[in-house]
Amino acid sequence: MMQPITSPTLLLNKKVCKANLHRMVEKTSAHDLVLKPHMKTHQSETIGEWIKEAGIKAVTVSSIEMARYFYKAGWKDITIAFPANPSQSHDLNELAADCNITVLINSSSVAKSLANKLTQPINAYIEIDTGADRTGIPSDRTSKINDLIAVIQHTQMLQWIGFYSHPGHSYQARSEEDISKVHQSVLSQFQALREKFSSLSDEFEICVGDTPSCSVADSFTGIDAISPGNFVFYDLMQTQIGSCEISDIAVVMACPVVDRYPQRNEIVIHGGAIHFSKEQITQNGVVHFGQLLTPSNDHWELLDPPAYLTSLSQEHGIISCNPTDINNYTIGDTVYIAPVHSCLTANIMERYKLTEGQTIDLMK
Amino acid sequence: MMQPITSPTLLLNKKVCKANLHRMVEKTSAHDLVLKPHMKTHQSETIGEWIKEAGIKAVTVSSIEMARYFYKAGWKDITIAFPANPSQSHDLNELAADCNITVLINSSSVAKSLANKLTQPINAYIEIDTGADRTGIPSDRTSKINDLIAVIQHTQMLQWIGFYSHPGHSYQARSEEDISKVHQSVLSQFQALREKFSSLSDEFEICVGDTPSCSVADSFTGIDAISPGNFVFYDLMQTQIGSCEISDIAVVMACPVVDRYPQRNEIVIHGGAIHFSKEQITQNGVVHFGQLLTPSNDHWELLDPPAYLTSLSQEHGIISCNPTDINNYTIGDTVYIAPVHSCLTANIMERYKLTEGQTIDLMK
């Protein structure tokens, strides 16, 4: 982990990442679940290969572009977990000619518009809003769900295969107990839906996909598949939610110290909003964009007492130090910082550097 | 402006951008200032050509990579407005072999370390902290400044050419009057420095570069050069500060409506944190990531009553509508949204689409 760096570098600890992956694979095996990992977190063909090697056959993505990238990398079963956009039917047809594509359909108008433009069969999940209030039909609106199933089943090219939900309200949790409450509510809602619609098809599938619930839950009754994404990397937000430990975080930013201001108890790093993203979090009353780590051979640990990345401009980052610690930093040093939200940090960087030294590109 | 789009698209109104550019060029001519525009806002060779055509010879960038990109695009006078990083001396030497390179030096240790590694002569500004508390030596620490000038002048390869400051505290302004107060303070500080160090060299230069002050100030006494960046595009943050009008904003995100939730008075767009960035702003008591616009042929105008992009996940954006307006939106529509911070939105997108239709790439 002590590779010399000259500019902001996204370090990836392969061992921690693979351990996270294998823990989730083992959990899904134990609960007879299909794991369709969400690739939006890492956006990397190479990490996709690690996932393939773990025996995974189907993946989840968040856009057509990402579906195309992973199709080219050899994936043949891809869920685009985003409300289907009929104006992208040309791309969907191209992909579906050689790949099992599943989209989310939330309204009859989209189902009809899309079906009219499809020349290839495509699977459709109906997205259920289980409480996140982002997208999907609320689970208690069974009449609307019923009508939509009928519309989809009436089309030639769309095949209704079940329900999908991203219980994003688990991100409001601050303990395993909070996460469990969200998860139990999701299980109950799907139990009710399964009973309601059991006569329609024996085979429909229920897929849910938030990293907090998938990480801590020990019951998945009524669920067939899960599609968490963040779990391969985790981050500070997930530790705050209660999904993981700091030692499970697989990606950190390594940044050079470029300036120091002892009178302000601050050091300045090369590492700004275009490296970390501006995702912020509040911990111990401090609003910040990252927290300093101590490297070890196996994993990273939080610096004690804590130090935070408290300000970001485009390329500059300011770290507020403890008065006793400011003299530990010299211009030219490398500092290691846990990102608040690893998905956004990975998206904004162009590549990973493995702690062993090799470089891995992201989709661009 | 009514080009059909199928995915999040960063639209650039060339006419507004060029008008912003020419207004700043005229101002610098009138005040006998050198304009060294900061290219970090647009990161585009093509927009660089528009700047060249306006008679500009020198530019400012925020990293070595950006310096290299614009050097390849034909620029021969480049200031890297970031604390110099001696570990990047190899890249500096390469660039400086055929380009007039200026860096910021804030400490004697960096000056010495860098000078030891340079094989090409490089110019150095000393960065002055005029109140932003980010980087630079506070202007009243004249003894430290004096020592640093001496250290730089003692090296063979570093040539001290003057002082640089980014008065980023102007971003706290909320009116032209607030901006003027910051600007007057900056002018006073540099006036004192010029008097203090006038015996050292007749020729040293003072360069300042924040878009708010450069946009609204009408006096630049004692200043030789300015390096604003954001002014070519402007954005919502600049309208809040008081630097510009909405009609001066040159870039907007065009996003497809992919879902609608009349019961929540919300529409969902394809356009998330990986398109807008997570820069947030508070206006009219609403924390948001963008504000809806109405397109016209010449420029964009704010929707009245206002509607805001109030939530972002990776690819989803949620727009809170007025109850009376929700029925104006249909799935498949395109909405136009002013970004909070155009530099970060441009950085995160891969290309601009001109409102006339052509595509312009960004540095990647």
UniProtKB/TrEMBL annotation, chains A, B:
Domain annotation D-serine dehydratase-like: ranges: 250-356
InterPro entries named in the record: Ala_racemase_N, D-amino_acid_metab_enzyme, D-ser_dehydrat-like_dom, D-ser_dehydrat-like_sf, PLP-binding_barrel
A biological-process GO annotation: D-serine catabolic process
Keyword Nucleotidyltransferase among record annotations: no
Matching Gene3D superfamilies: Alanine racemase, D-serine dehydratase-like domain
Keywords: Lyase
GO molecular function: D-serine ammonia-lyase activity
Family indicated by similarity: Belongs to the DSD1 family.
UniProt-recorded name of the protein: Alanine racemase
Species of the source: Fodinibius halophilus
